[in-house]
Specification:
The chain has a domain of 202 residues: Orthogonal Bundle (MetI-like fold). The chain is globular, with a radius of gyration of 25 Å. With 314 residues, the chain is mainly alpha-helical. The protein has 15 helices and two strands.
Length: 314
């Protein structure tokens, strides 16, 4: 019996075809994204450039004649102000805790929605209801929930350590931060679950069945098969939620209005630009917030080190 050899030209044909397909898909993706990208640039370019321009001036809306160029002076004032760093710390703390909790709970919800057979549509709709509620409405609801006079939290959970009928959730920093984070987790966990469900549905059942046949326990299948094959979906979910959580404003504005040192970076920007009419300082804060969000996105992508081409099966 003679061995069959594959010609050289055939061995190189498969990688070339895969490369051509990848290039074609990239070009198609660029064409599909281009209209939305152009519209986004047209809508956002002027406000962004205007904010960058105003950040270089001492400019208060109530005294427009006193406008003066200060260069990077506004940024120097902000970066040396302890209030800015306190608000940034609050923002980072809210982001880390809420995203971590949402990732765990959202993954559990995704597993339930993926595995459930009976009333699957009803279950998925019920889980997604909180995300469909307007943030301001949910924030008012949670403000009432934690109220010392009319809320039901103290009465329902009074048996837990640290909670009683007289617990004032808006009376100190940590209680108020806890209330804000609970409202944020309740509102946005369904969004996290939806993104994770999309990644979970891409995992082959044959792969899980093979692992089960090989004797892998449920925990081993979770940590050795499911989670590694969901890295791309987890990265997208964490990225979207982290960027959104870092810009938290509505819940704080409704529930505490920044009292008890619960201000976020976005709330500080609002106070400077809208309440105090400091357009120069507010613009500088918005530019810093934008740059921080870009840096955060870069760090998250680098942290997960996901090869999107490999995740697509190329």
């Amino acid at each position: 019996m003679t061995a069959t050899t594959i010609p050289r030209d055939q061995t190189k044909a498969a990688p070339a075809a895969a490369s051509d397909r990848s290039v074609a898909e990239n070009r198609l993706g660029q064409k599909l994204v281009a209209p939305a990208l152009i519209l986004m640039v047209l809508v956002t370019a002027y406000p962004m450039l205007q904010a960058l321009y105003l950040s270089l001036f001492r400019y208060r809306l109530t005294t427009p004649d006193d406008k003066a160029f200060v260069g990077l002076g506004n940024y120097g004032v902000i970066l040396t102000d302890s209030l800015f760093w306190k608000d940034t710390l609050n923002t980072v703390l809210i982001m880390l805790i809420t995203v971590a909790v949402e990732l765990v709970i959202g993954f559990a919800f995704a597993m339930v929605m993926h595995r459930i057979i009976f009333a699957r549509g009803v279950m998925r709709t019920a889980i997604l209801i909180p995300y469909g509620i307007i943030t301001v409405v949910s924030a008012f609801a949670w403000q009432f929930t934690f109220s010392i006079n009319n809320g039901w939290v103290n009465g329902t959970f009074g048996w837990l350590p640290g909670i009683s009928s007289t617990t004032n959730w808006y009376g100190d920093h940590w209680h108020a931060m806890f209330a804000i984070m609970v409202s944020e987790i309740w509102k946005t966990t369904p969004f996290m679950a939806l993104l994770l469900l999309a990644g979970l549905s891409q995992i082959s059942e044959d792969m899980l069945e093979a692992a089960k046949v090989d004797g892998a326990t449920a925990a081993q299948r979770l940590f050795k098969v499911i989670i590694p094959n969901m890295r791309a979906a987890i990265m997208v979910a964490v990225l979207f939620r982290a960027l959104d959580a870092f810009r938290i404003f509505d819940n704080i504005f409704i529930m505490t209005k920044g009292a008890q040192n619960t201000e976020s970076s976005s709330f500080l920007t609002y106070r400077q630009a809208i309440e105090q009419f400091q357009l120069g300082m507010g613009s500088a804060l918005s530019v810093l917030l934008f740059l921080t969000v870009l840096l955060l996105a870069y760090l998250i992508v680098k942290l997960f080190r996901v090869d999107l081409a490999q995740a697509r099966g190329e």
